Amino acid sequence: MKTLKSVIFGQMALNTGLLPEDMAEAILAGDTPPTEGIVVALLIAAMDAYAVTINDPQSRWIDRRAARMALAVTFLAAMAVVDDGDAEAERHSGVRTTAEQCRGGK
Q: Is 90 left (phi over 0), alpha (psi -120 to 50) or beta?
């Protein structure tokens, strides 16, 4: 049974050109690479599109703004997807967070 994630990855590999050819072929063969690898490929594609757009003298202000927003969203999504373990470590460190301090903690 296909998961939603595998369907999304399959569509991305088939229809977008955002992934390197070897990565797209692996996804289509059913051997999905690590999520971090896919995230890096998407970040590179977003940075490339941004650089091309802002350096094109024919691009309009709205195109440059859209490219900048797409780049920001890509980085935010990458930060949400890739867990480096810091959040878990902070939860178990015993150090109070700002929210805990606001609830009356010291």
A: alpha
